[in-house]
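Structure ticket #2291
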Amino acid sequence: MSSGTQLVATPLTRKLRITVGVCSVLFTIGTTVHNFAIINSELVAMMMQASGSADPAVSAPGFTL
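Resolution: structure written out below.
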C-alpha cells in the first residue's frame, strides 16, 4: 500500500462494521452460554464413556474445569 493512499469510510462500510460488531458480540454471548449451560460434567462423562475412557465419572469434572 502506498503511503499516499487514504481509505475513506462510506455509508456501506459503516453499516458493515456495525453488522460485524453486533454479530461478533452475539457469537461471543452464544459461545459463553453454550460452554457454561450446555456443556456440563454429565455430558462430558457420557461422551467419554462412548469413546471408551477408563473412568469417565472421575475424569469429567476435571475436564470441564
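Closing remark: Residues 3 and 25 are 33 Å apart (CA to CA).
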